[in-house]
Please model this.
Amino acid sequence: MASGMPTPKRGVMEIEAYVPGESSVPGGLEPIKLSSNENPLGPSGAAVAAFKAAADSLERYPDGSAAGLRQAIARVHGLNPDRIVCGAGSDELLNLLAHAYLEPGDEAIFTEHGFLVYRIATLSCGGVPVVAPETDLRTDVDQILARVTPKTRIVFVANPNNPTGTYIPFDEVRRLREALPDDVLLVLDAAYSEYVRRNDYEAGIELVATTGNTVMTRTFSKIHGLAALRLGWAYCPAPVADALNRIRGPFNVSAPAIAAGIAALEDRAHVETSVAHNERWLPWLTAELEELGLIVTPSVANFVLVHFPEGKGQDAESANVALQARGIIVRRMGGYGLPGALRITIGTEAENRATVAALQDFMAGTGR
Ligand SMILES: Cc1ncc(COP(=O)(O)O)c(C=O)c1O
Model:
């Protein structure tokens, strides 16, 4: 007879549970939430209307294949809908990929400050996380390649990366793919791709189309402002889509999320307004923070990583306290191994100005 308590499988207890961005501040202040890279303009009105309309038939299961949503994604992005798999956020898809392709003891490579879900997904399958150093907080293809072994099964690259905001050009992504063994799945996490305004950037569609071993993941949580609904998608080679469809929950995406997702995709004006907002305020916030003497990692996404000086009471932790005292919530970076930095999401104009004003006072020693 078995004795003792049930024991989670190998790897599970090594996981440090993901800590989401905070959403409340002490003292009952109305929070300015700049901690989770959400869209400060909110979702498209059409998406909200579609979500509300879906409330009329909550007794029905959703379409398990999310065909309407896949067709809408395919139309907007010029893709084959059969190779799209939808998920409850791209988090779910990243986890499904790990579960489909990692046996216990297999290795998954990601970068030093890569998105934390890669580690969690790897460990939860009994896989071995392998960390590749970055260069200047940027993905370094050679460092990744130097860590490939016969046990490597997946390479996760967020492009642009969270929390650094940096990206690598398509040439580099292609060089990575060409140098990786064919049986290694390259997962390009393009959660922030819509924000990137660089001619040498490509989210991954081309590589998925031209190789049999590359997947791109996308989300409705960022540019589409639908984080609450948990909606993401992956563009895959046909055999990868087949594998994911076998292991995903049969109704892993809810009907209200499908309806809102379709409406959000079709509202191109809202996407463009959201991109334009970011294009205006990302450089503004970067310049204002640099003006205060802070170091800002150049970002192509909807957030900035800001480095604070150690000592003199101007460190990141003290800055966080000063911001919180004004109701401003940003993301502390200790969990990412960057305790000297804070990550700040681009907010509305008023939120951006309030953040700069608070940090001006903090740096001048009058805001603590
Ligand atoms: C790089 C990256 N990938 C994936 C996600 C997950 O997004 P979601 O699960 O909301 O689609 C995030 C969210 O912060 C992210 O920053």
